[in-house]
Amino acid sequence: MTSRFKEYLISFIVSVCFVVIVTGCAGGSEVALTSDTVQHAIDFATTRLKQTAIQYGDSILFPRSTSDDGKWKTVPPRDWTSGFFPGCLWYMSDLKHDSMFQELAERWTVGLTEQQYLTQTHDIGFIIFNSFGKGYEFTNNESYKPIILQAAHSLMTRYNPKVGCIKSWDGRKWGYPVIIDNMMNLELLLWSSRNGGTQEMYDAAVSHARQTAKNHFRSDGSTYHVVDYDTLTGKVIAKETHQGFANESVWARGQAWAIYGFTMAYRYTHEPEFLEAATKSANWFIDHLPVDHVPYWDFMSPNIPNDEKDVSAAAIAGSALLELKNYTDNPAQKSKFEKSAFEIINTLCSSSYLAEGTNSCAILNHAVGNHPKDSEIDVSLIYADYYFLEALSRLTVINSKHGDAIK
Ligand code: GLY
Hints:
By secondary structure, the chain is mainly alpha-helical. It has one domain (3-402): Glycosyltransferase, CATH 1.50.10. Helices cover 51% and strands 8% of the residues. It contains 13 helices and nine strands. The strands form four sheets. The chain has a three-stranded antiparallel sheet, with no helix packed on it. A hairpin with a 6-residue loop joins strand 6 (226-229) and strand 7 (236-240). Helix 3 packs parallel to helix 13 (382-401), helix 5 (124-139) runs antiparallel to helix 6 (145-156) and helix 9 runs antiparallel to helix 10. The radius of gyration is 21 Å and the shape is globular. Bound molecules: glycine. Residues 80, 181, 243, 253 line the site of glycine (GLY).
C-alpha cells in the first residue's frame, strides 16, 4: 500500500467512524452531524473571536449583542453578560490548545475582578463563574479561587431562609422575584461549597433548586419565568413573566435555563428531584420545537411562524442535553436527548444560523434578548455564542472518548 493511499484510508475510516458514532448513539436516526461540520464551526468561531479580541484588546469592554451594522455593542463589567466573552475565550483556548487565547481569556477575566463584591443581583454567578470559574477549570490558576469564593459569599447575601431562595432582582415591580434563570447561578454556590466555601452555600443552593422545582413548573413540564414570594410567610404571591409573551406562555430561553440549571444541579447533588425537573423541562422543550429545532423566542407567541427565533435558547438547551443524556438510565430518554442535541447543534452549524458570510461580528445569528421591551430582537448575543462553544467543546470530548473521531 502506498503511503498516500494509507493516509486516505485512515482519514476515510476516521470520518466514517464519527458519523457512525453520532448516528449510532442517537439510536440509529439519520442525524447528519459530522466531524467536518463541527470542525468548520470551530474554525469559524476561532476567526470571529480573534477579530473581536483584536478590536477591543486595549479596553475592558465586553461584547454583549450586535447592532444593525453587525458590530458588537459593548457593556461594562457590571453587566450580567460580561462573563460570557471571557468564557468564550476560555473555551477556545481549550479547544485549540492555543496560548494566545489563554492570554486573552486571562486579560478579560481579570477585568471582572471587582465584580466579586457585587451584591445587587444574582447575575454575579454568570459574571464570575463563566470567567474565573472556567479559567480555574481549565488552568487551575489558584489566584482565581478566592475571587470565586468571595463571589459566592456575595451571592449568599441574597438568600432569604424564610423563602428558601436567592432573590434574583432588586428594584422591579415584584417584592421578592425569583426567576428561572437564577438556577444557572447556583453553580457558583455548589462549586464553592466543595472548594473551600461553606455548607450553607450548598444548603442554600439545594433549597433554592427545590423551591424552583416546586413553584416554577406547570404540570406539563413547562416553566414560569418569574415567581414572586412573600418574605413574611415564604408563600408564592404571583407567577408571571418578564421576557416572555404572557404569564402563561413559555419563554424559550427560560425553558432552556431550566433544562441546563437542573441538569447542573443534579451533577453536583445527585438529587433525583433535580433530574426529574431537568427531564421534564427537556421533554417539554424538545416536544415543542419547530422543524428546524430552533425555538421561536416564546413557544406561544401568536405571531408564529412569522416571528423571531432565539438561537440562544437553542444553544443553551443543546449544550445541556449533551450532559443530561448521560444521567438518565432510560434508553429511550437518552436517545431522545442525544438526538435532539445533535439536531440542534447541526442546525446551529448551518448557514441559517452560523454568522459566516453575514455582517455580524459574532458566531451565531438570530437571537432575541428581551422581546416585550423591544430590545435585542434578531441580533447576535454573546451568551448564544458561549453555550454554542460549550456544546462544540462537549461534542469533541464525547467523540475523543469514542475513538478520536474529531481531533
Ligand atoms: N438572564 C437574563 C436573560 O436570560 O435574558
